[in-house]
Structure formats: C-alpha cells, structure tokens
Design brief:
With 187 residues, the chain is of the alpha+beta class. The protein has two domains: 43 residues; 90 residues, no CATH class. Strands 1, 2, 3, 4 and 5 form a five-stranded antiparallel beta sheet that branches. A hairpin with a 2-residue loop joins strand 2 and strand 3.
Length: 187
C-alpha cells in the first residue's frame, strides 16, 4: 500500500507558481533599482565633497575681494582674511549644540570690518555647558583692538527647531482642569 499525497495533482493551483515567481522578480527589480539609486547618491555626495575641498584650497579672499562679492554664498567654503574689531557685548551663544555627544553652545560674535560700516557674524567655536549652573556660560577670550582673522565662508548654523510665528489657538475653558483637581464636567 502506497501512501496518498496530502495534495493531489488536481488540487494544486497552477497559478500559484507564477504569482510567486512574479513577486520574486518584482522584488529583485526593486532591490536592483534601489541599489543603483544609492550608488548615484554616493556619486553626488562625493562630487559635492570634492567641490568643497576644491574651494578650501583656493587662496584666501582679501577683505576688499570679500566685500566686492555680489553674493558671499557663491563662495561657500572658501577661505577669507578679514581685519576689524570684535563686538564682544553682542556675542551670541546658540544653545543645545552637541560636540561628541556633549551638550554645549556655539559661540558667535559679530566682527566689525575695518574701514567699513559692515559686520559679519563669526562662529568662533564651541563651549561646553556648565552642568552645575545652567545660567553660567563658558569663558571665551576675545582680544581687544584691531585683529586679523582667517576663516571659511560658511552658511549660518542650522535651525534645530523653528517655531511658527502664528499665535497658538486659545484653549477652550472646558479643556483646562479645575484648580482643585476635581474631574471636569462633561459637555
């Protein structure tokens, strides 16, 4: 006596094989397509990095050349040499900026260009947050008098969180809990 198969020939569905084959071919096609897309993105990023590196090795712009630029953003990542005065009282500390996982501040100080009425904002570095007293800021030494700085033309620091300018919607009185902690009445 030979055992009978669980599924006899007439119970099998012939379309099932083609459905699974089609699904496998579509998945393979999608995977190959995504892989090619990743390679093209990598090439774009390598080209962008190469252009940044090319800008960095150019000779520094002088102050006159920098001031003559119609759009300084056209020369991003290029060195520039400027002379002027630090406007120390207007120093800005950008909060919640981490470096190597440690919270701190970016330090930005306006720099008044010598012989002009223009100023540029210079990102001078990063200082660690004081964990004992949150209101204390790290000391940043600023030389007095005319100084010469050499740096890179960079875009402004990124926004971590930008809140809209619209006023918040008023909270209806029924949404605020009573002061005594009692449950609010249902409408």
């Amino acid at each position: 006596m030979t055992p009978e198969p669980l599924y006899s020939e007439d119970r099998r569905r012939p379309g099932r094989f083609w459905l699974i084959t089609l699904a496998a071919v579509l998945t393979l096609g999608a995977t190959v397509s995504l892989g090619r897309w990743q390679l093209s993105r990598a090439a774009q990023k390598e080209a962008l990095q190469a252009s940044i590196e090319a800008q960095k090795v150019k000779p520094p712009l002088t102050q006159a050349e920098f001031l003559a630029l119609p759009q300084p953003s056209d020369e991003l990542h290029r060195p520039v040499r400027l002379r002027g005065l630090w406007l120390t009282p207007q120093t800005v500390y950008l909060d919640n900026r981490q470096m190597h996982g440690v919270p701190g501040f970016y330090v930005l100080t306006p720099f008044a260009l010598e012989g002009t009425e223009q100023t540029v904002m210079v990102q001078r570095g990063w200082v660690q947050r004081n964990f004992v007293d949150r209101t204390k800021l790290g000391a940043v030494e600023t030389p007095a008098g005319i100084v010469e700085v050499t740096g890179l033309i960079e875009p402004p620091p990124s926004h971590l969180l930008e809140l809209g300018t619209a006023a918040p919607a008023p909270v209806p009185p029924a949404a605020t809990p009573p002061a005594n902690g009692a449950p609010r009445p249902r409408a």
